């Protein structure tokens, strides 16, 4: 139990640290940030439940006011802005990414983690983000989709990096990839 809590806290911290990288904001208020890669990594490494819990912990401390989002943003206000859907979607993204890595064991881990990151960290995440952005900015779903289309190539790169990092970590320390541990210990 303590080990699970330590891993959850560690990945919440990884997501926070990735927010320290300088952000680049587009004109409609959504920053380009490395934090979504932290979400992908949390799911790929920790698995569905622990990965989602790491994101929830990160969001909790952000809601409490810690300036952990890219650009030093924090507090409840971020949950009503243009990125609100993406923030909520991070939980589902980590969960889906982790679930795919847990269940799909017939292919090399780099491929599984990379594709799981595309499905969870891009497809699922963008579903939440686009709906949230459409609601907050009073745009249609098509207009909101057009606004975030510029992020897709970078997110594909993050998914590839996540797959490679997960596989490298597995080679160095197989026991550290909790998403690949026996299901009974999850």
TrEMBL record:
Coiled coil regions, renumbered to chain: none
Give the record's keywords alphabetically. Cell membrane, Membrane, Transmembrane, Transmembrane helix, Transport
Query: Known Pfam families for this protein?
Result: BioY
Residues passing through the membrane, by range: 51-69, 76-101, 107-137
- Please give the GO cellular component terms listed in this UniProt entry: plasma membrane
The cross-references to Gene3D superfamilies, in alphabetical order and at most eight, read: 1.10.1760.20
Please verify whether the record's keywords include Lipoprotein: no
User: Where would you find this protein in the cell?
Assistant: Cell membrane
- Keyword Membrane listed? The answer is yes
Q: How does it sit in the membrane?
A: Multi-pass membrane protein
Tell me the GO molecular function terms.
biotin transmembrane transporter activity
Instruction: Identify its protein family.
Output: Belongs to the BioY family.
Protein name as annotated: Biotin transporter
Specify the species: Rhodalgimonas zhirmunskyi
């Amino acid at each position: 139990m303590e080990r699970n809590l330590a891993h959850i806290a560690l990945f919440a911290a990884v997501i926070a640290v990735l927010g320290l990288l300088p952000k680049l904001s587009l004109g409609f208020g959504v920053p380009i940030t490395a934090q979504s890669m932290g979400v992908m990594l949390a799911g790929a490494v920790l698995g569905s439940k622990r990965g989602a819990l790491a994101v929830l912990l990160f969001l909790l401390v952000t809601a409490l006011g810690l300036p952990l989002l890219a650009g030093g943003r924090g507090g409840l206000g971020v949950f009503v802005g243009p990125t609100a859907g993406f923030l909520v979607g991070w939980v589902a993204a980590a969960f889906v990414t982790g679930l795919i890595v847990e269940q799909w064991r017939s292919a090399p881990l780099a491929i599984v983690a990379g594709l799981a990151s595309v499905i969870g960290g891009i497809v699922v995440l963008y579903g939440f983000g686009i709906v949230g952005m459409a609601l907050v900015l009073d745009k249609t779903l098509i207009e909101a989709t057009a606004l975030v289309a510029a992020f897709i190539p970078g997110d594909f790169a993050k998914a590839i990096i996540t797959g490679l990092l997960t596989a490298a970590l597995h080679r160095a320390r197989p026991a550290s990839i909790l998403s690949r541990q026996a299901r009974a210990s999850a």
